[in-house]
């Protein structure tokens, strides 16, 4: 039975005790989750208790008034029970005791209920005022080489392997918070940091082996909380990447599932059909829908059954626990449409019930604008479904940018007209302020690869990220047009190390001196002198300016169609306007200012955002090939 509960100490990073410290109880109770709780919470508390034969015991709580067991539920496995605990509003913080009894036999296990931090329920979250910096921790910086391998984890470091662990960790991120803040970022989204104990490919973290513990090769629960605190001290919010759709085959419960339907089980391995349309297609069959939401993502990632109420409650509490424990500012939910949509709607509503202003963005990877809009909470869906998911990732815009910017074509509907066309569909979306825009991420080609290493076109993309509607996100290194080490290696090749994050690196791109001196790109190929520094400074200038530009955060958009691979648009409100003109063509272009008279008339005090100089735009103003003009005005 010990195999089923093998793993890290079940209370590390939660209450100040572990099973070994409570003698006989620690041997009998192998796991209690959530690890701890707080007074004043709205979310019902249901403890998962694991231990050999634990379902044979009655359970009560002692230690003071206001905390009591309301019900105990047996699972299919005799080695689990689920305990409903009521915590009254006036309950005192402190250590309570779970008392397990069977006939004359009795033993106790401690459980911590802490005082909730003041203002926790009303915490803010990430908004259009933020720029999100996406980091894959294993590839960003190695701040603590001593944890590259640990005795209780399977995979060991192999920095030379594309799909191996390279050693980046939480301390590495802490060490470079100043760099991230100086770039103009105001939020950090890390790919998952929870334990992933698969024997290979564990560096990405998406095959969770323990939902309540940070992977020791990244750090500890305590260090993660320290990272969040230090990020807040630098003006940086922290967004946790979470996965509700699947766990990993190395998860401790896979040796002994609490319920037979804890995960989706088929007679033989059955993968998802990845057919998201079954969720809203009025003609879809139940057979196809079942495969979409119940089939496994890949063989190493068992699909969770959120229709099981105990699984759903487990994930509700787990989400709330991490927000409260670590002081989080947001969630990004991986593979969102692969989940059962009804339970996930309930999950989102539960998190927002506890934290009304909390933002959650879902990865709804689809090229279809109507299908993407379906997933945003509050959308007027014909079937009456409401996901309660506040934010969505704008994959259609990302794809439009990929197709528009790399081409010189001026054919009908080509070039920058693709971006115009994509944004012309904004009428479909319920809330444009709750859309994450991005040029690429850890699952796509790098934007530097897509643009074929062209720095001028890269600046065009960064300009759009800094000035378009929505919440911008860039992938670590995009500020310097990082490219893949080997595109034939797929994900492993694009998730390159950040030079300077490892002891012995010859170049340190975290420093101005290192950027200025760099002679090669992340793929090892030569780059023009000063190019990395120039790209970094260009990106920094835009996003530092954007921080306080309310018209960009909350303003409306007016754009103008062209057929010559240029694109002009305004972001505006009652008092301010920002004009952006993109010339993505080979030749110099004049700004057709008179075409913009309906919004341009009356604008005054123009200032070129990129140079700081006063400027007056007219029909004779020219913009060079593959160049941008960004002007801020008063209205």
TrEMBL record:
Gene3D superfamilies membership: Glycosidases, Golgi alpha-mannosidase II, Immunoglobulins
One GO molecular-function entry: hydrolase activity, acting on glycosyl bonds
InterPro entries: Cyc-maltodext_N (IPR015171), GH (IPR017853), GH13_cat_dom (IPR006047), Glyco_hydro_b (IPR013780), Ig-like_fold (IPR013783), Ig_E-set (IPR014756)
Domain Glycosyl hydrolase family 13 catalytic residues, every copy: 134-495
Keyword Hydrolase appears in the UniProt entry: yes
Keywords in alphabetical order: Glycosidase, Hydrolase
Top-rank taxon, per record: Bacteria
Gene Ontology BP term (one): carbohydrate metabolic process
PANTHER family linked to this entry: ALPHA-AMYLASE FAMILY MEMBER (PTHR10357), MALTODEXTRIN GLUCOSIDASE (PTHR10357:SF210)
Protein name: Glycoside hydrolase family 13 protein
Organism: Candidatus Cryptobacteroides merdavium
């Amino acid at each position: 039975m010990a195999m089923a509960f093998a793993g890290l100490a079940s209370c590390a990073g939660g209450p100040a005790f572990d099973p070994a410290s409570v003698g006989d109880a620690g041997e009998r109770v192998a796991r209690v989750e959530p690890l701890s709780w707080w007074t004043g919470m709205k979310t019902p508390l249901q403890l998962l208790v694991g231990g050999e034969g634990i379902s044979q015991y009655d359970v009560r709580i002692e230690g003071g008034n206001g905390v009591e067991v309301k019900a105990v539920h047996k699972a299919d496995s005799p080695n689990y029970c689920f305990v409903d605990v009521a915590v009254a509003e006036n309950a005192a913080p402190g250590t309570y005791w779970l008392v397990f009894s069977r006939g004359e036999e009795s033993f106790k296990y401690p459980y911590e209920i802490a005082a909730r931090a003041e203002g926790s329920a009303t915490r803010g979250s990430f908004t259009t005022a933020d720029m999100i910096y996406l980091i894959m921790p294993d590839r960003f910086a190695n701040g603590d080489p001593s944890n590259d391998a640990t005795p209780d984890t399977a995979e060991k470091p192999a920095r030379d392997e594309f799909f191996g662990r390279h050693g980046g960790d939480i301390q590495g991120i802490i060490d470079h918070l100043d760099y991230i803040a100086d770039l103009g970022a105001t939020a950090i989204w890390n790919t998952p940091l929870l334990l992933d104990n698969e024997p290979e490919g564990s560096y990405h973290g998406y095959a969770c082996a323990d939902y309540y513990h940070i992977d020791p090769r990244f750090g500890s629960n305590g260090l993660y909380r320290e990272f969040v605190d230090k990020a807040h001290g630098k003006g940086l919010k922290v967004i946790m990447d979470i996965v509700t759709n699947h766990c990993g085959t190395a998860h401790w419960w896979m040796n002994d599932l609490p319920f037979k339907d804890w995960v989706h089980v088929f007679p033989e391995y059955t993968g998802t059909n990845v057919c998201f349309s079954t969720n809203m297609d009025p003609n879809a069959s139940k057979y196809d829908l079942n495969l979409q939401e119940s089939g496994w993502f890949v063989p190493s990632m068992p699909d969770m059954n959120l229709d099981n109420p105990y699984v759903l409650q487990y994930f509700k509490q787990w989400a709330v626990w991490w927000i409260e424990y670590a002081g989080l500012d947001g969630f990004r939910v991986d593979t969102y449409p692969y989940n059962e949509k009804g339970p996930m709607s309930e999950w989102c509503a539960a998190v927002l019930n506890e934290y009304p202003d909390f933002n959650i963005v879902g990865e709804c990877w689809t090229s279809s604008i109507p299908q993407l809009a379906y997933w945003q909470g509050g959308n007027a869906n014909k079937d009456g479904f409401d996901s309660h998911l506040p934010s969505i990732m704008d994959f259609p815009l990302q794809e439009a940018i990929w197709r528009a910017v790399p081409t010189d074509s001026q054919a009908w509907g080509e070039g920058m007209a693709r971006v115009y066309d994509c944004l012309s569909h904004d009428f479909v979306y319920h809330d444009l302020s709750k859309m994450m825009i991005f040029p690429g991420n850890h699952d796509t080609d790098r934007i530097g690869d897509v643009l074929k290493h062209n720095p001028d076109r890269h600046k065009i993309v960064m300009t759009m990220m800094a000035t378009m509607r929505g919440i911008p996100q860039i992938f670590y290194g995009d500020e310097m047009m990082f490219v893949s080490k080997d595109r034939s290696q797929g994900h492993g090749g694009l998730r390159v190390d950040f030079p300077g994050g490892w002891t012995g690196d010859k170049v340190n791109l975290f420093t101005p001196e290192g950027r200025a001196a760099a002679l090669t790109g992340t793929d090892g190929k030569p780059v023009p002198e000063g190019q990395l520094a120039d790209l970094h400074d260009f990106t920094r200038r835009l996003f530092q300016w954007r921080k306080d530009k309310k018209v960009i955060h909350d303003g409306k958009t007016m754009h103008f169609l062209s057929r010559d691979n240029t694109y002009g648009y305004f972001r505006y409100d009652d008092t301010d306007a920002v004009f952006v003109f993109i010339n993505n063509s080979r030749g110099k272009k004049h700004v057709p200012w008179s075409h913009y008279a309906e919004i341009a008339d009356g604008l005054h005090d123009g200032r070129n955002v990129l140079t700081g100089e006063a400027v007056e735009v007219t029909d004779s103003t020219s913009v060079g090939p593959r160049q941008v003009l960004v002007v801020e005005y008063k209205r």
